[in-house]
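Schema walk-through. Below, the input block comes first and the output block second. Nothing else is stored per chain. Lengths vary across the set, and this one has 323 residues.
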Amino acid sequence: MVSGAQTSLTAKEEATYLAATTVTTGVIGGHGLKITSQERSNNLQAVWGLGSRTQTVIVEKQFTGTLGIEFLMSNSWFLYPVLGKCADGGTVGVYTHTYTETNTLPSFKFNNSLNIDGTSTSDLNISILGAVNTGTSIKTSIGEAVSVTMDWVYANETIATSAYVEQTAEAFMPFSFAHGVLELPNGATVANCQSVDISIAQNADMIWGLGSRAGTAHVDKNRAYTIRTSAYFTNPAAFLNLFYNGSTGITPGNITEIATLQLTFTNGTQIIEFTFSGLKIESESLPQAIDAAVMEDINIQARTLTVIATDIIQTYPTILAKA
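--- output ---
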């Protein structure tokens, strides 16, 4: 029998889609990494014909594979497969990593290693090939660490009975709600903020071609950002006036975009700063009850995102970067 204490999940970017890639000990994730789902399907089709109620044949169609992971936000490396580009800068002890959007998502090879009995001939390694991020959620609330969930779709997989692979230990401490500051717009801190939930939808699809049941390419469609947050209501300036487009009620015509929303997590010398731009408030909620403080919730859509991380590491890890 094998428990999660005897498994690991390592990764490395593919130089080109499905290119041969050697995965070592790099990890996309942080403390508390877990595989929440790993599903594979032959997408079988049952076939019946005239003359019998019994199936006459079962046809296997395209192979599909999905992977779900969850972890506590401890570093910024996971943002590269989400946004697609990382530019390193800064100086000694104050290095920066600026993550920006690209139209084509990078693909990764994952290695899921299971330590069955500690021998090189009996341990199991599952190679997950051509994985691209299809969605990511970053959220925290009062009393909680910042958690990240990532969903992936992949083209193919192989297995091998080879030695168990240890993953690199996480070097940084996790971020928590206490490390965060929300500004809407940038420069106006939201007082008594209770929760933040960022959702990034990638709308990436797998492509199949004649001659193989495995995926051959991926297409990355529209990217969408949604931010949900809640705070204790004190006055209409925080959220309600923004919903009213800076007025005292619903106005005709176009709603003016809010320039920026900035969410910054600072844990000692380590900083991760999310800056969304081109925002409009989708909805605002103000429920009220006699036995509770009034809480205000808003749902925001944003057009763009840039993330700047600061830490003591000079460059994006080579054990994750493509060769």
